[in-house]
Amino acid sequence: xxxxxxxxxxxxxxxxxxxxxxxxxxxxxxxxxxxxxxxxxxxxxxxxxxxxxxxxxxxxxxxxxxxxxxxxxxxxxxxxxxxxxxxxxxxxxxxxxxxxxxxxxxxxxxxxxxxxxxxxxxxxxxxxxxxxxxxxxxxxxxxxxxxxxxxxxxxxxxxxxxxxxxxxxxxxxxxxxxxxxxxxxxxxxxxxxxxxxxxxxxxxxxxxxxxxxxxxxxxxxxxxxxxxxxxxxxxxxxxxxxxxxxxxxxxxxxxxxxxxxxxxxxxxxxxxxxxxxxxxxxxxxxxxxxxxxxxxxxxxxxxxxxxxxxxxxxxxxxxxxxxx
Length: 324
Known about the structure:
single chain; alpha/beta; Rossmann fold; 2 domains; seven-stranded parallel sheet; five-stranded parallel sheet; 10 helices
């Protein structure tokens, strides 16, 4: 009988990780699953671990002598998760990309629909108690005649493309690594984004924060967009230079924006974006109340645990040098 596979849920622990650990142990008897509560215990447990969930810090990585698989809890983890030593380590890293596809794409469409019909202007009038049928000061966007450029057509972007298509929109997808069919979209590589930006009525970014995407939406790129176009970001905040975005809206280079993520979180209360017209902002909550996300996340852990035990290729393997 082969030796058991040791899997460590890295601290800090919460009710969710303890639930994951108990379910994995019940589902996979060939695994020994441990959940150390602090860094000291984790340092002891990681020494002979075959796999782990969470983050292995630069201090602990040299102790991980047997580590062959690391399951990242997030498709777009915190800045610093992928450091140089981890990128060069032989362990395979996988992530849960794809589990947010419907919830975040619905959030995107909330922005698209609201901005296309001038809802921010009418909300302003409502808050002031004004019956103003002429409140809207931006052009009406007929979605049946509009173009959406989706920067990143993974799970979220592909579902957004489908929804945009259902409204009759033309969809241009920007994607370096096509892993799924994207309904009705024209797909182009990232190096062609500048060519297609001037055609978009909505520029929608769903990409993770990577060395290639950091700050990719800046003053120059906002200058390429239509003055009637909108920028929507639900991927990672550091993809967009927030001051450049605010400047572009203030001077009328673009018409407005819808944001759920920000270069700096929380966005400082003195930032002028709070007070600009035709702007919609939510505080990084696109999947906050989505009740099925924990189950989806666990199912990826479980499927990868099965594959790892069989020696098969894992789901959602990450290119460690590119962070996704």
